[in-house]
Amino acid sequence: MAQDKPARRPRAEPPKGFRDYFGAEVTERKAMLDKIAEVYHRYGFDPLETSAVETVEALGKFLPDVDRPNEGVFGWQDEDADWLALRYDLTAPLARVAAQYRNDLPSPYRRYAMGPVWRNEKPGPGRFRQFYQCDADTVGSASVAADAEICAMLSDALEVVGIPRGDYVVKVNNRKVLNGVMEVAGVLDPLDPERFSAERGIVLRAIDKIDRLGDDGVRALLGEGRKDESGDFTKGAGLTPDQAEIVMGFISAKRATGAETVARLRELVAGSAMGAEGVQELESIAELLAAQGYGTDRIVLDPGVVRGLGYYTGPVYEAELTFDILDEKGRKRQFGSVAGGGRYDDLVKRFTGQSVPATGVSIGVDRLLAALRAKGRVSADTTGPVVVTVMDRDRMADYMAMVGELRAAGIRAEAYLGNPKNFGNQLKYADKRASPVAVIQGGNEAAAGTVILKDLILGAKIAESATLEEWKDRPAQVEVPRADLVAAVKRMLAQ
Amino acid sequence: MAQDKPARRPRAEPPKGFRDYFGAEVTERKAMLDKIAEVYHRYGFDPLETSAVETVEALGKFLPDVDRPNEGVFGWQDEDADWLALRYDLTAPLARVAAQYRNDLPSPYRRYAMGPVWRNEKPGPGRFRQFYQCDADTVGSASVAADAEICAMLSDALEVVGIPRGDYVVKVNNRKVLNGVMEVAGVLDPLDPERFSAERGIVLRAIDKIDRLGDDGVRALLGEGRKDESGDFTKGAGLTPDQAEIVMGFISAKRATGAETVARLRELVAGSAMGAEGVQELESIAELLAAQGYGTDRIVLDPGVVRGLGYYTGPVYEAELTFDILDEKGRKRQFGSVAGGGRYDDLVKRFTGQSVPATGVSIGVDRLLAALRAKGRVSADTTGPVVVTVMDRDRMADYMAMVGELRAAGIRAEAYLGNPKNFGNQLKYADKRASPVAVIQGGNEAAAGTVILKDLILGAKIAESATLEEWKDRPAQVEVPRADLVAAVKRMLAQ
Fold this sequence. Notes:
The structure is a homodimer.
Chain A: E1 21-22, H1 24-42, E2 46-49, E3 53-55, H2 56-59, E4 75-77, E5 83-86, H3 91-100, E6 109-118, E7 130-139, H4 144-161, E8 168-174, H5 175-185, H6 197-208, H7 210-222, E9 225-227, E10 233-235, H8 241-251, H9 258-268, H10 273-291, E11 299-301, E12 315-326, E13 332-343, H11 349-352, E14 358-364, H12 365-374, E15 386-388, H13 396-408, E16 413-415, H14 423-432, E17 437-440, H15 443-448, E18 450-455, H16 456-465, E19 477-481, H17 485-494
Parallel strand pairs in A: 2-6, 8-11, 15-16, 15-17
Antiparallel strand pairs in A: 3-5, 4-5, 6-7, 7-14, 8-12, 9-10, 12-13, 13-14, 17-18, 18-19
């Protein structure tokens, strides 16, 4: 008989850039997000869960003059010819919801959202095309009290998940101050906002590169331009050295106290109304935070925070972890940023035509989780189940009864449900499950009305240290009456 | 100056068939899933979170002879020409993971998964294109102890979320018994498994319609066929009345006790080896469950459970809620099924060529949540925050200090962050937020060092009943020293 040629088998792998999360990876993240959600709840924020799919139109991810969605999103055309796409962040869906339900939601509307987002980008090491975000935003409040509140909440959230005070700092800056600085430096004309916009773009991009290029590199980009190591030339903003010094002065305006920083900024933006407004906002935020007991050990004014200044319209904030970790090459480096946010005052304008002020923060879930792991601060129960082994497959009901008793007593437990023939496989299974205790009842024990409990944690320790001496007072294996099973397992687990 | 013609504004709505979940909708579902996860954990199941996106190849959703994915999934072609799609259930990703990690995972592998799945189907009332599933499966165990365990776990899960014993029943059936019945009825030949497959398909579809068509309708479909009300004729399986009676006897084989049901089934499948095997499996499941204390008040053998019999290969189980609810027309009806599952022994065969036995259950998250709501059993804290109102916008720091103290004491609280000019709006906001207490401090109170607390819950009750008399001992508004703010709010919340 001719054999059918088998069809090619599908590859058992996820698409490139996607991954699976097993066991503790899931529960550790969940434990962290649950704690953050408690803080958000206490601050009056309500959860919002939008669907993963939005219309491309609502996301605003259309290429101009092209009828396909922008790169960067996973999109497809549905049967009604509408383009749909997976959300790439949690802010775009919030904007849609804030517009759609503007007459029903409380105003201001405080909401938090936690969930995956998708980016159609080249995956790389540690860079995935699906990852979690954890956002909190206040929509409809123009008050800097809303910004201050989010900074305080971010500080509380970091402490509650296990980052001790002193190991993090929330830094606050303000886009309006930078605008004031640019006005003073001569690249912003309040009477003609469009003028110099190319130069301002270069200034924004230049200061955003301060960490990589250092002061001299940024100075070059503020001036005529900069030739990089490969010889490529990047055109600069064309500021004179004096003008450039004003911008550089902004980045390095941080002083020992908030009051001194404010005084320094006020000097820098002297003569700019918008700059003065920005400094006033920073001062208010510091005052509001001080009134709630948040001192500079937790939240500081720092004009050196430049990330996002091009996007946000007022206060900008960023949480940095200040402890050292070892990088992949074994070098010490600061852990760095785990959260950032700020004020963006045109959240729903695309939909409604009306400006609605909003401010919010996004926590980088994977980075924060990595930080907690680096500090040994993850909290998830990784203990495996008690494994009831199967010596006699005809007495499965007896073994399941043991498991049932253990579970009813709140103990994580299971019977070995593979082929019980090879007992060694059962112990290997218990080992793979990180099982703390194996329960064994063969024919002799059944006849005697007993069970054997094997302390697998102790057993592993004995195997490691090889000196049985130190463990001699604690038997790695005990035989107890069947009726004492639950109590004896509890004793062993408590050791 | 000519005005620019504004671009058409995007519609502020989700795609058709998708929806948003607000506040308590999110927390109630989360609370339910957290409780279920605790039960699954105690049973030794580990969480698994796969990504939303799979290759269409891994999902197995290709149309035959067509290079586009099947309808029913949301799919798109990525830049490498691979077809990707959103998962339509949690079983297909499990199959991929079980194949991919077959050398690393413990075997048997118990896993649970909770999360959204997507169906590209016509949306309808209450039918959405993204919804939650909550699955638990055991991969790699051929033992019916694995099936029994999942039935017990399902029973525990239902009780732990708030369905009292007696208000639900887990029903167990077995596909092999049906095969035995079909063998006896003459539409299955063990020596030639392909023979009569068309007839068996008709039999399976017929008994699946028992709820809608009743005994006579099914009998007609088992025989020559059936003409429906519109006059359309559906061809039947062509069984003689005697053969049809055997199949009908299977559906109605449930007796007062499990032992009697087993005896009745054994009669029906007399002469069929596969039928006898199925009956034996049902008997073993009943015995294993009884050994763990799960009696027929929780789990029963019921050959009337026909859903999924065409898909599963051995034991089949279904959880039904037995209490009445009122349907949309005000008629009493039983709530019905909230979970179902069974054994499917070819989970990873598509990937590896090897048969791997598996059994699992899927809880219909939205249906179970609806049931809990109908019974008033949802548990989520829906109390809004204490709202500190703003009488004097220059003293924002004072109000934020109050909020900070309340939050530090674990009380959900917020300041009003909208425009404070209209005080009525602030109280309307507090009402919309379901706030229990409003805190008020105007200039007089500030000078006197006091705050006013308004009991909004009591206020609402007084407004409803209109007889102030019954509330006269409990003032709806008190003035307390500023220093007593937290203690006084706590007292008011405790009332």
